[in-house]
Write a structure and sequence with these properties.
The chain folds into three domains: 119 residues, PAS domain (Beta-Lactamase), CATH 3.30.450.20; 106 residues, Beta-Lactamase, CATH 3.30.450; 88 residues, PAS domain (Beta-Lactamase), CATH 3.30.450. The chain has 13 helices and 14 strands. The chain is elongated. The relative contact order is 0.05. With 375 residues, it is of the alpha+beta class.
């Protein structure tokens, strides 16, 4: 008599098959709809009769309405992109002769010219005698995936090209301040020559630099704020020459999470030295010198010009020089801008000379001024 004790060991329980409902399978129309949802199609090929069957969505993957063509391997080959056709034909021939299971990625051209990328894979089903009698397969439209992969590869190639050729340092640092990605230029700028930098911390690679920017990295990671135009100094290890660096730090996010810090670094030593030299020369000249932009506004003025005119560079920068110093002739009559030598030099080129009469509240005297167009 069967043991009906509900707590009896499993080995002693008897379970009737009647206690399980008969397993039901999805209806064919449900399977067809599922194929449409995921962009797949299915097929079955009888090796003995050379007969090929397609699901409705298999037709759609080839740009056809269901039942619009007789399913044959040759029709698939005809729909294949010319550059992929030979490879697909070879896979079909091998499947027919060797009963192999093709697995191939290829492009098809729809009747309207649309190009789609398909991935076909298959397996064989053996007959009662053990020999291969049928091949069944699935084809998936992977156009979107392929396009995304291509776009990602192009972006990566562009970034790698930029990183390897630009005269700017690029780097990415994770939340543990370890180098994840860095170009050679950044390593040169920070003076690091200590082997492979990936996985090592900035403090290890460039302790002098880290001492100046460690707090900035922490702030970027903690608060998601960018820090731009940060000036850094370091010394060359051999010559002790000073190098001036300009750095920018940006939070790198995935969704809302800051996963690291992006770094852009430029060596501005030569630029700053040239600026300092230019300032030193300009400030020691006995002649007054100023520079105007295309609109006649002051962009630069040296110390001698400031003494002669009675205006500081800060007071005149961005203002019209004519309105400041050419507002009247030496005899006190108004000096119209259209008659101003400054305008003629800017519009016609060449050089000229004219007296300047600064505001009486400044110097009260006229100053002769040679004017030359800057080319």
């Amino acid at each position: 008599m069967p043991n009906s004790d509900p707590i009896a060991p499993p080995s002693r329980r008897v379970v009737s098959s009647a206690s399980f409902p008969q397993r039901e399978r999805p209806r064919p129309d449900a399977l067809e709809r599922a194929e449409q949802l995921v962009g797949t199609g299915s097929w079955e090929f009888d090796v003995e009769t050379d007969r090929l069957l397609w699901s409705d969505n298999m037709f759609r993957l080839l740009g056809l309405e269901p039942g619009a063509a007789l399913p044959t391997p040759e029709h698939v080959i005809d729909r294949t992109h010319p550059d992929d056709r030979e490879r697909v034909a070879a896979a079909v021939a091998e499947a027919r002769s060797d009963h192999s299971s093709p697995d191939v990625i290829f492009r098809v051209v729809w009747p309207d010219g649309t190009i789609r990328v398909l991935h076909g894979t298959s397996t064989f089903i053996a007959g009662e005698d053990g020999a291969t009698s049928r091949l069944v397969g699935s084809v998936q439209d992977i156009t979107t995936l392929t396009d995304s992969q291509r776009a990602a590869a192009e972006s990566l190639t562009l970034m790698e090209t930029l990183q390897s050729t630009a005269p700017v340092g690029f780097g990415f640092v994770d939340r543990g301040f370890r180098i994840v990605r860095v170009n050679e230029r950044l390593l040169e700028i920070i003076g690091s020559h200590r082997g492979d930098p990936v996985g090592r911390t900035i403090a290890e690679l460039a302790p002098e630099v880290w001492g100046q920017v460690g707090a900035i990295y922490r702030d970027v990671l903690a608060n998601g704020r960018s820090h731009v135009n940060v000036e850094i100094e370091r010394r060359e290890s051999d010559s002790q020459d000073r190098r001036l660096l300009l750095a920018n730090y940006y939070p790198v996010r995935i969704d809302t999470e800051v996963i690291g810090v992006g770094v852009v670094l430029v060596d501005i030593t030569e630029r700053e030295e040239a600026r300092d030299f230019r300032s030193a020369v300009m400030d020691t000249m006995v002649e007054g010198l100023y520079v105007l932009d295309g609109a006649g506004h002051v962009t630069f003025m040296n110390a001698a010009a400031s003494r002669l005119l009675g205006w500081t560079e800060a007071e005149l920068r961005g203002r019209s020089m004519h309105e400041a110093i050419h507002f009247q002739h030496a005899d006190g009559s108004p000096h119209r801008e259209r008659d101003c030598e400054l305008l003629k030099v800017r519009t016609e080129g060449g050089r000229s000379a004219c007296p300047m009469r600064p505001s009486p509240a400044r110097t009260g005297r006229s100053v002769p001024s040679p004017i030359r167009r800057r080319r």
